[in-house]
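User: Hey, quick favor. My workstation is busy. Could you predict this chain's structure for me?
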Amino acid sequence: MNLVQRIWRSSLGRKYLMAGTGAALFFFLIGHLLGNLQIFGPPELINNYAHFLQSKPELVWTARLGLLAILSVHIASAVSLSAQNRAARPIAYASGKPAYGAPVASRTMLVSGLIILAFVIYHLLHFTALLPQINGTGKDFSHLETT
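Assistant: No problem, here it is.
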């Protein structure tokens, strides 16, 4: 059994994978935010940033595929760990209350994750696929210049 299989078969390994991929997604989000915040600077800043991204399609597609892989591992880890957790205790506690001391974040993780996933899908359809039903104008935003 190779290292990847051993990591995946271990619940602790899947937790580390989930944490690592979550951190990677968080750091991408920070980088994405910093890039987009350039819109508030002089027009040359955002125009240069957009030109840089458009002139490097291999970089953009590598990032997209990498993010897709990271997101896939993150979701697969979440589903697998959740299924294992449910299998460990198939009968709910009699009180029906959440486990003592469980923070709100851990109790709402599924809902918040699904909301974020829905936004990511919307965001990609809006700015990458340029679907007129979502983007409203049907315009290709890559040719806009700020003034």
